[in-house]
Design a protein that fits this description.
Strand content: 25-35%
Distance between the termini: 26 Å
Number of domains: 1
Largest sheet: 5 strands, mixed
Strand order of the largest sheet: 1-4-5-6-7
Number of strands: 7
Number of helices: 3
Order of helices and strands: EHEEEEEEHH
Structural class: alpha+beta
Helix content: 10-25%
Radius of gyration: 15 Å
Shape: globular
Oligomer: single chain
């Protein structure tokens, strides 16, 4: 059975997500992407969205599971800077995520006004599949 889509909007896959959160350092005459401590592997990512609906700004939300624990990461930016240096996982629960469904927020990122119907539907299905009492 194929795995449901996990990366939305500005990300087509894990490499895009890693590249946007990674700092780049000048080394031997070129910019090199640094390794991000604690970065989720592709297999750990359950849901990832990067909304770049406005030029030069964006908001990101990543949900991943590691060693039986659930984590979320939020990032945002304006101007010409990106998400680099903002990979800071916070432990969460399915119940906490379920409380956000009616508020139409991933966390700091609101999807109420975004054209994110497919991503929102996937997020709702994912949360509801883990918290049966959610309507």
């Amino acid at each position: 059975m194929p795995r449901a889509q996990r990366y939305f909007d500005g990300w087509s896959g894990h490499a895009d997500m890693v590249g946007d959160f990674a700092d780049r350092v000048w080394k031997d005459g070129e910019y090199v992407q640094e390794t991000i401590p604690g970065m989720a592997t592709d297999k750990e990512v359950l849901f990832a969205l990067y909304d770049r609906s406005e030029p030069y700004s964006g908001s990101a939300f990543v949900l991943f599971e590691r060693d039986g624990k659930l984590y979320e990461v939020h990032g945002s930016h304006c101007s010409c800077y990106g998400l680099e240096g903002q990979w800071e996982p916070e432990e969460t629960t399915w119940e906490a995520l379920a409380m956000r469904l009616n508020s139409k927020r991933w966390g700091v990122v609101s999807y109420a006004l975004m054209d994110q119907a497919e991503a929102a539907a996937r997020f709702h299905r994912l949360v509801r599949s883990h918290v049966k009492a959610v309507k």
